[in-house]
Each structure stands twice: as C-alpha cells, then as structure tokens.
Amino acid sequence: MIYFDSAATTLQKPDAVPAAVAGAISTMTTPGRGDHPAARLAADLMLRCRTEAAELFDVPQPDNVILTTSATHGLNTAIRSLVRPGDTVVISGYEHNAVTRTIFDIGGVSCRIVNGRLFDRAQMAEGFRRAVDGKVKAVICTHTSNVFGYTLPMDDIAGVCRERGVPLIVDASQSAGIHPVTVRTWGAACAAMPGHKGLYGPQGTGLLLCGDGFVPAPLLTGGTGSLSRQQEMPDFLPDRLEAGTQNVHGAAGLLEGLRFVRSTGLEKIRRRESEVICVLADGLKKRGDFRVFDDPQGESSVLSVLPLRMPPETLADRLAEQGVAVRAGLHCAPLAHRTVGTEETGTLRFSASVFNTPEEAEAVLGLLEKM
C-alpha cells in the first residue's frame, strides 16, 4: 500500500515505537501506585517522556508536559479553563472541530473569525492585529491547517497576544514533529498535539504543553497517586491534569516517537515531506483536471485537491482499490472549507510522512493517468 493519509494518523512508525509499547506492557504498571520496580519503571518512563517533549517544544519544565489521550483532550482542557459563556474569543478561519465544537458547547461565546486568502500569511497576521482587543479573553489558533497544509504566521499571532496580554492556545496537531513549536518563545498559555501524527506515536496518546504560570482547570477528577487524603485535585502540574490510570504503554511508544523526531531533525523531516508533496502538486497541476491548493512556498506536508471530473470520495475509493490510501471529505474542519470555498464538495487530501518517497508520488500520478 502507498500510504498518503498521515495527516489523520501516521501508519509507518519507527521500529522502536511498537517495540517500546510491547516492552512496557510486560514490565510496567502505573506511576505513583506503588514503590515496587514495575511502578518505578513506569514513573521513570513518564519523566523521560515529559523531558523529551519539554526539550523539543521549548516548555519551561517537564512537569508542564501533560500526557493526554489526544489533541482534542488537551484542547478541551485548555479552552474550558479560559473561556466562559459571555466571553469573546478570536480564532482563525482554518480551525478544526476540536476547537469550534468545544467553543460551541460552552455556549454564549462570541467568536471573532479571522479569515484571509489561503497561504497569505501577511493578511492573516494583520487580521489578528485588528481582531485582538481588550474584550478578547483568549486567542485559539491552529498552527497548520489539517486540510490545506497552510502554516499560519504563529510568531506574529503570538506577538500580538503578548503585546495585548491575551492568552494564546495553539492547536499544533498538524505541525508538531514537522514545524518548530516553541511554547516559551511564543508565550503561549497552552499548546495541544496528538501523539499519533507527526510524532509517530500510538493512537490514544497526546500532549498538552503548559506555558509559564498557567495551570488549567482539570477536565477530569480522580486519583493521582498524590495527596490522597484531600478531596480537591492537587494544585500542581502534572498531577492536577492527570486523573486516573495513565496510558504508560502508549507513553513508551510516544517517547520513542519523540526521540525519532529529534534525532532525525525537523528540517530533514519537513524537507522530505515537502519534496513528496511538491511532486504530487506539480504533476496534478499539469493535468488540468484538478484544482490544486498548494503552498507557493512549497513547505507543506499536506495537499488538498478538488477533482473536476468526479466527487473526491469517488476518486478516493478508486485509489483505495489500487492500494493508495488518501482521505476525502471535510476532514473534520468545515470552517476551513467554508473559508476557501470548498464546503459543498470537500477535497481529496494527500498527506505525507518522512517515510514517503518521491517515487511513491510518481506512482500515484501514473495511476491517475491510467484512470
């Protein structure tokens, strides 16, 4: 199979990832629930995972790295800590449902949407400068669009938030492991990300990275293995946000994914993925029967296209029959499609990982030519 659906989940993992998961299952229990070797091994693993993430993502200290089940889990924790009914927030026009549905569920929130032409970063930055004022309680913004691979000007957006004293929540679901995510430099309150995409970890893992001085309210309450006599949740990280039994086995795989990303290097990963996507984009533009939404800077690992001769879902099914995995539809981000004008049709999305090759892209172009 040629796998071009890594924006949903990376399928090819470094060999160390499944090996670490299997090893943890047979050797580790739960940190903080015993002083025996299996519990101590688990506690050591969790600390190593936090430390690796803190160094990769510029987090003030390892305790500010919270292990979650997904980016959605982390975003819910962060957003519900900062946003209340009646508040005003600012988001981009490229947000995922993990952001928009959470805001909608809180209810009574005034949402300012900053739109802009696709891949026009200067216009997007200016839009945030105009939208963020003294009424705004939080800015919630995707770093990279999961639909179009559009990396927003986060340095500029973060600068506006710092200047005006507005907390920033970053959805780094599509950028983590590909583009630099710098929590401390941005001055972000939080950044959330999954473990199963660009970090090459298992499904059911994620990270919530908390900035200096920000301790979110817990989304879940329960046992933490600490301060067991008191009924209030601990007021310190990470315990405050990690109620219940942790996914130690998933964290073992995530640790190896983080190590793989750091040892390979973001620049090398980004260069390989962009190279593959550029082959696809150039080949599809030459055909004339696709509308191609490609980054002019050629720095994306995601490519959305609109087939002009058949629905995206039909073409995705035909490619699947030929052993090519892609995704078609709205990609859980209808707001992004509304912004670009593809809400009625959705798009066909190719998304690469560091394990894809230009030869695979050429093979897909050959299949499309035969079709």
What are the defining features of this structure?
371 residues, alpha/beta, Aspartate Aminotransferase, domain 1, Aspartate Aminotransferase, domain 2, 2 domains, seven-stranded mixed sheet, four-stranded antiparallel sheet, 12 helices, 40% helix
Task: Provide a compact summary of the structure.
This protein is an alpha/beta fold and 371 residues long. It contains twelve helices and 13 strands.
Walk me through the structure.
This protein is an alpha/beta fold and 371 residues long. The protein has two domains: 2-10 and 265-370, Alpha-Beta Complex (Aspartate Aminotransferase, domain 1), CATH 3.90.1150; 16-264, 3-Layer(aba) Sandwich (Aspartate Aminotransferase, domain 2). The protein is built from twelve helices and 13 strands. The protein has helices spanning 16-27, 37-56, 71-82, 97-106, 121-131, 154-164, 183-186, 248-264, 266-287, 312-321, 334-340, 358-370; strands at 2-3, 65-68, 88-92, 110-114, 136-142, 168-171, 190-194, 206-210, 290-293, 302-307, 324-325, 327-329, 347-351. The two termini are 18 Å apart. The mean pLDDT is 97.
Number of strands: 13
What's the order of the H and E elements?
A: EHHEHEHEHEHEHEEHHEEHEEHEH
CATH homologous superfamily grouping of the largest domain: Type I PLP-dependent aspartate aminotransferase-like (Major domain)
What percentage of amino acids are in beta strands?
Answer: 15-25%
Radius of gyration: 21 Å
Strands in their spatial order, largest beta sheet? 2-8-7-6-5-3-4
Q: Could you name the CATH topology of the largest domain?
A: Aspartate Aminotransferase, domain 2
Second rung of CATH, namely the architecture of the largest domain: 3-Layer(aba) Sandwich
**Please, how many helices?**
12
